[in-house]
């Protein structure tokens, strides 16, 4: 409903300043309504306007200077791609592709686990045939076969373990008694190892199936909460998978949803002019099984109607909730009671008003929680950025300190070199005391200009001691000359 900023700018620059009686021709009715709402300009969208727009679109390269038919085709293609991407882009948490894949995998796992369990029964049945009648369930049979192994080794001590597996003390006692009087053949240890390893694989598959069912339940509560609350997670997922997506299911009429999954029976009935099917995949819901034989068609039609409403609410609502699904389920329960007892159900208008009020409260609560989460996330992000900034400042300070230390060390080295150089020059300037004649012949060297050096107090004391020694030497030399 908000006019795009580019379109608003274009209209503001193209329209005259006094636009009291301006009438625009717009090809799209929604765009015309948006222009009227935002700018107050009357728009016409039908009849001649559509033909004019079609003509402009056809001869657009000829009307615009510098635009070729090839560049116009490229622009149209890019617009089509961007429009398709915008339509395809959904919320990550509301993707129904994962539901389609998980329900397909769940059905495949059911078939495979059933086949493998039958293989374990026929394989282990040679050794312990009486166990099949005592433990008819597939996964429990595999667990018991893995636990027992060789039936001759079964004793009273293993009774507690059997009770934990079968969850029944009477069954565990029956298994123990049957193992003592079994008609099965003996089996080698190698065959038992193979049977136990295969049973372990079947048990792991059944455990994975349970985890997959929990995942499917959580995804259905996120993507289609109303549909799953009305008809169940598994049946709702099968409907979405058969339709192709939740959007396709929402587009179907109630009559199509009613027989979804019974296409073969429908076309066979149309071909032979027989009775058409009353239900398809929705037959697996509990409502149709609870209804009487004469009311199964009526309740399936009513249930398909409610499923269509629930799927549309889930597909097109911004914040999906299970409130509508719970209310629709109550309506189906009331309709079942009406078929059985004749008690009139509530009107749909009253139920939907209650559902809208409750749904608004739930949506407000969800939005409040989302705002809190967003605030917390922003705070965490701010703290993280502050921590990074503090770490960067510390690193910069450490680098500055290191550079200063390096500079101070370099200065000290330079000072030491400068102090060593004048000492060496003084040592070279001192005359050697080999005789009086040599000292007379040698001329005193001229004093060299020395650079001023900053000297520490300890170094000053050393220099003063050296000067005193030199004076003493000179005095000794003068005394020897006078003698």
UniProtKB/TrEMBL annotation:
PROSITE patterns: NOP
Localization per record: Nucleus, Nucleolus
GO terms, biological process: ribosome biogenesis
UniProt keywords, alphabetically: Nucleus, Ribosome biogenesis
Region called Disordered, residue ranges: 391-483
Domain of life from the UniProt record: Eukaryota
Chain intervals with Basic residues compositional bias: 466-475
Composition bias, Acidic residues: 423-444
Main subcellular location: nucleus
GO terms for MF: snoRNA binding
SMART domains, per database record: NOSIC (SM00931)
UniProt family annotation: Belongs to the NOP5/NOP56 family.
Purpose: Involved in the early to middle stages of 60S ribosomal subunit biogenesis. Required for the biogenesis of box C/D snoRNAs such U3, U8 and U14 snoRNAs. Part of the small subunit (SSU) processome, first precursor of the small eukaryotic ribosomal subunit. During the assembly of the SSU processome in the nucleolus, many ribosome biogenesis factors, an RNA chaperone and ribosomal proteins associate with the nascent pre-rRNA and work in concert to generate RNA folding, modifications, rearrangements and cleavage as well as targeted degradation of pre-ribosomal RNA by the RNA exosome.
Subunit structure: Part of a large pre-ribosomal ribonucleoprotein (RNP) complex, that consists of at least 62 ribosomal proteins, 45 nonribosomal proteins and both pre-rRNA and mature rRNA species. Within this complex directly interacts with TCOF1 in an RNA-independent manner. Core component of box C/D small nucleolar ribonucleoprotein (snoRNP) particles; the core proteins SNU13, NOP56, NOP58 and FBL or FBLL1 assemble stepwise onto the snoRNA. Interacts with NOP1 and NOP58. Interacts with NUFIP1, RUVBL1 and RUVBL2; RUVBL1:RUVBL2 seem to bridge the association of NOP56 with NUFIP1.
Name by which UniProt lists this protein: Nucleolar protein 56
Lineage: Eukaryota, Metazoa, Chordata, Craniata, Vertebrata
Gene this chain is encoded by: Nop56
